């Protein structure tokens, strides 16, 4: 049986060129490396017969750190021909990639997440290299003050936008140097969640959301009796529970108080931009 998902995040990198407080991928824990291409191709082969996402998001860490990124995108396109591929990047490393190449992967989207307002000129320069590839762009504003996409550039089969999330809420606490859960009410935590309906494929297993997969990878004894889905067993329940609170949601805070400002350079360390 084939299951259809609105969105699936595909974790391809653990390292990041930034270290951000409150990062759901724990970039501030100095994580290293990327998932090898052979492993990613195996994951695609494993799941392409079971799930079809409308949008497949290449996620990290920083995906642009993956040395085989373009080979991976081509493999995703073959496996899911009609799926929109979305690349989420902080944008600093776009200069290492041919800006014309992104147009080969339609339908394709690029989300450039803005960190540090003092570095906006760096990111804008890299975005301009992509926009300069064609004069056919149209654009629209969302008109929604809660939408992180302030301006969307688009042509047929391709969209590009900057995301201005600004405030992040840490999905964990620290005690004696260890990650500990908040032990919130699951429904309250889910109601204030920044990724309430975002399943992720992480090391060939399906997890409810990026924080769960990343935190359990960094610290196995962190939380509860959560079991990721490894094959078709449990897949129907997993799909049906997307967007719903579950017991594992108790790991996160029950409100969005004391958010971390990602436009403030004190909360975002740029480790390298080369």
**Percent of residues in helical segments?**
10-25%
* Continuous helix count: 6
Shape: globular
- Integer count of domains: 2
Name the average pLDDT.
90
**The CATH superfamily title of the largest domain:** Aldolase class I
Structural class: alpha/beta
Gyration radius, rounded: 18 Å
How many beta-strand elements? 15
Strand order of the largest sheet: 6-7-8-5-4-3-1-12-13
Low-confidence stretches: none
Largest sheet: 9 strands, mixed
* CATH class division of the largest domain: Alpha Beta
Distance between the termini: 45 Å
CATH level-3 fold name of the largest domain: TIM Barrel
Can you give me a brief rundown of this structure?
This protein has 274 residues and is α/β, with parallel strands linked by helices. It is 20% helix and 25% strand. A hairpin with an 8-residue loop joins strand 6 and strand 7.
Question: Can you tell me about this structure?
Answer:
The protein has 274 residues and is an alpha/beta fold. The protein is globular, with a radius of gyration of 18 Å. The protein has helices at residues 37-47, 69-79, 120-131, 186-191, 210-218, 235-240, and strands at 3-11, 18-20, 51-59, 84-89, 108-113, 138-140, 149-155, 158-163, 167-168, 173-175, 178-180, 200-202, 205-207, 260-261, 268-270. Helix 1 runs parallel beside helix 2. A hairpin with a 2-residue loop joins strand 7 (149-155) and strand 8. The longest helix has 12 residues, at 120-131. It folds into 2 domains: 3-167 and 260-270, TIM Barrel; 170-251, no CATH class. The chain has 6 helices and 15 strands. The model has no long low-confidence stretch (mean pLDDT 90).
